[in-house]
Known about the structure:
The chain is mainly beta. The protein is built from 1 helix and 11 strands, in the order βββαββββββββ. The protein has one domain (7-12, 45-245).
Amino acid sequence: MRHACSAALAVAAIFFVYRPIASAQSPAPSAGAKAPAVADHVPDLSGVWRENAPAGARAYSGFAFTKEEPPMTPWAEAKYHEAKPTFGPKAVAVEESNSPDYNCLPPGVPYIYFRPHPFEIIQGQGRVIMYFEYDHFVREVFTDGRKHPDDLDPSWMGHAIGHYEGDTLVVDTIGFNDKTWLDRVGHPHSDQLHLVERFRRVDHNTLTDDLTIEDPKAYTKPWSAQLIFQLRPQWDIGEFICEEMLYAGHK
């Protein structure tokens, strides 16, 4: 079994070291090789990916988007002050944390990218599936031309629609609840969160995600960030269940 689940490893699991499963896939081309396409006007973004950008180009130490604070409203500043994360400048012990995912609540988007687990992109007719190893969450992005429904019920992952612009998949997501954080240091969002992502395979082994976060209740203006993912052609999506983590002090 790839993931240890004993209580003795509970805290260490936060810094989980991924052990890839060898697969029958052929070796990937070297970095810089041209990104493939699945069809005319549809870039091939498929594969198993994990956030692992080169030093100096990745999210802030793997737990926030940037060292600079986003432009928070007083409402968001109060929520941020109440947050007790286990990462960043105001980190606390795991048993003191009120991080939603430490109670095995769904991490939501974009927080789920900060979990140290890979995800797979599967492209199909009229939709793109993002299949996350963490708790096997599935994110469905509709690319069949539909619009967001007018009567969305708030959800953890939101409602995502997408379209292709050249070599880029543009994903527009709304309909979130307000029960998750944006990152592992506790920046909040409200149910007014509007997330736009632009996924682009800059070469065979590298996928970028340029995010724009708009939430008028939490932030005084839209702000942007970038995540960079590396292709893991020898990895498969394994089984990882939050309740087996046995976080100290959390059930």
